[in-house]
C-alpha cells in the first residue's frame, strides 16, 4: 500500500480524499494556489505545496507543477478528485511515465471515454444503447444548424471535452442552434482547451440516471446501483439521490449490465460513472462516461456501505475488488443537496466573499466512515471565517442524509437545511428547501426539465410558501419575549423603571406585495417551565419551548410537542429592530411591537427606493471580461451590454430598455464588486 499520496485538487473533494487516506494510514500532500493558501484542505493535509496563481489555469491545471510536487515530497500516487485534471488523458499518462501511480483509470480508458464522440462509437460497439446524433466534430455554426435540422429539433449541443454543465446547450430552432454552438465552443475552449462540439437528439421529458461502476486490474467490474440526478438547473445537478424513485428492478439490472460491458470494453480500472438518459417508458440511452469520482458519490456510499475513495486507492495499488456483484447492497435511501454560493432570488448569480458564519447541521455520518450510516453528513472544504473565492466553482458544501426510505430521507434533509447556517455570502438553501417541499418532487414525478418548468420566471420568495405561517409569527413573538425577559434581569435599573415583560404584542411583517401585515399575539408562560411559552395567534395556539442561547442563530426547540429547527437573528435585514426568521425555506422579517408601537408604526411615512434605472450595475462580484458598447451608442432592449465572469461561468448583461449610453465607469479586466456601476445611460 502507498505510504504517501498527493491530492491534485482543492475544496471539499481534496478534504474528502485526505480523510480516507488518514483512515488508511497514508500520509497526504495538498497543493494550493495563491487564493487557497489558507484553505481547509491545506490545513488537513500532512504537507502542502504551492503551485501557482489563483486562476486554475495558473495552478490546478499545471500538470508539470503537480508532478514536480510529487517528486519534491516523495508522493507515490496522485488522486485527481473531480474537475481540473481528473479526466485529462495526457496528465494521467505523464504521471505514469514519471513512475507515479494515478489513482484513477488508465490513460487509455480516459482517452476512450473522456472524448464524448469516441465514447459513443465505443458504446455502439459494446452493444450499449446510444442516442441518435452527429458524433463527429462540427466545424462551424452554419454546419451545426444544418445538422440540427436533419436530426430534428430539439437537439443538444455538447462540447466533446465538456462536463459539469459547461459547454452544453439545448436548441429548439435554428437561431438557438447557431448561438448555442458558438457559446459551447467558446466555453469549451476556455474551460477545457478543446473546442470540438457535437450534436445529438434531445429526449423529451428525460431522466438523468447514472450507474456507478468499479473495476480492478484483474479485469473484474461491478456496478454499485444507480443515482437519480434529474433535478438540474441549466444542466448542473442540484439534488441527487440513490436509488432512483423511477426505474424498475429490471431496468436497473439492464442499465448496470450495459455499464459493466462498456467499462470492460475499455479495460476500466477504478471508480467511474456511466450516465444514461432515460425516457418515460424506461428506455435508456448512453450519454457519456465520467472517468473519475463523481460529486454525488456519497449517496452511493450510503446505500452500499462502501468507501469509494478507499476502493479507488486499493485498486490503484493493485489489489483486487473485495466484493462481487452479488455482494453489492442497497439499503435505505440517500439524498444529497449541493449547497452553492449563489443567490437564488437574483437569478442564481454567484456570491463570493467571506463566510461570516458557517455552521453546518450536526453530523452523525462522516466521510470515509461507513460504520455510521442513517444520519446526516456534510462534505465541505470551507470553514467559519473562510473565503469563497471567485476563481473556482460555487460549491460551499454537500449535505447528505441517509434515511430508512425516501419519505424519511426527505424529512431529514428538510430539517438539516433548516439548521444549516451560512452568512456573509448568499446560498441556494431556500431553493433546495422549496424543491424538497414541492409535491411533484415528493411524489417522485419529475424529469430534467423540472426546474425550468416550475421556476421558468426565476425563483421568488413566494415560491416557498410556509405550511404554517402562523408558526413563524409565533416564533418571532416567543423569541422577542425571551430577549425582553433577559433585559429585565439586568442589574442597575432604576426602581419602577425597569424593563417590563408584557404579554400582548403585535407582530408586523411584510407580505409578498411589500405591504405591512399586523398580527396581534399574546405570549404567556406555559406550565411555568423555564424557556417555554404559550403563544396565541388568532385561533391557533403554539406551545413553544427552546433552551437555545440568546444570540445563537440556530434555534432548536419543540412546538406543540413536535421538534423544530429554525434560524433567528436580530437586525439581519434592513430594519435593525426586526427579527429575521428562516424555516423550511421561508424567510420573514418581523418587528414585534407593543400595541401602541404598532399603531404608531402605521403612521410612519413610506420612503421610496432610489431610481437606479439609469445605471448598469454589476449584479455579482466578478471579472469584467467585455464591455460591448461605447459612449453615445444607441442601444435597444435585449442588446448585450457587458459580460462578467465569475466562478467559471460567463454572465451576459443585457439592456432592459432602449437608451443611449453615457459614461463608461468600469474597464475590461477590472474586478467588480456587487452593485458596482459599470456604465450610465443619458
List keywords for this structure.
39 strands; alpha+beta; 682 residues; Rossmann fold; D-amino Acid Aminotransferase, Chain A, domain 1; eight-stranded antiparallel barrel; Dna Ligase, domain 1; single chain; 17 helices; eight-stranded antiparallel beta sheet; globular; 5 domains
Q: What report would you give on this structure?
A:
This protein is of the alpha+beta class and 682 residues long. It folds into 5 domains: 4-103, Rossmann fold (3-Layer(aba) Sandwich); 133-201, Dna Ligase, domain 1; 207-460, ATP-grasp fold, B domain (D-amino Acid Aminotransferase, Chain A, domain 1, 2-Layer Sandwich); 469-490 and 498-601, Glycoprotein, Type 4 Pilin (2-Layer Sandwich), CATH 3.30.700.30; 615-681, Beta Barrel (OB fold (Dihydrolipoamide Acetyltransferase, E2P)), CATH 2.40.50. 26% of the residues lie in helices and 32% in strands. It contains 17 helices and 39 strands. An 8-stranded antiparallel sheet has the order 14-13-10-11-12-15-22-20, sandwiched between helices. An 8-stranded antiparallel barrel has the order 24-25-26-27-28-29-30-31. Strands 3-2-1-4-5 form a 5-stranded parallel sheet. A hairpin with a 6-residue loop joins strand 25 and strand 26. Helix 4 packs antiparallel against helix 5. The longest helix has 20 residues, at 469-488. The protein is globular, with a radius of gyration of 27 Å. The chain starts with a strand and ends with a strand.
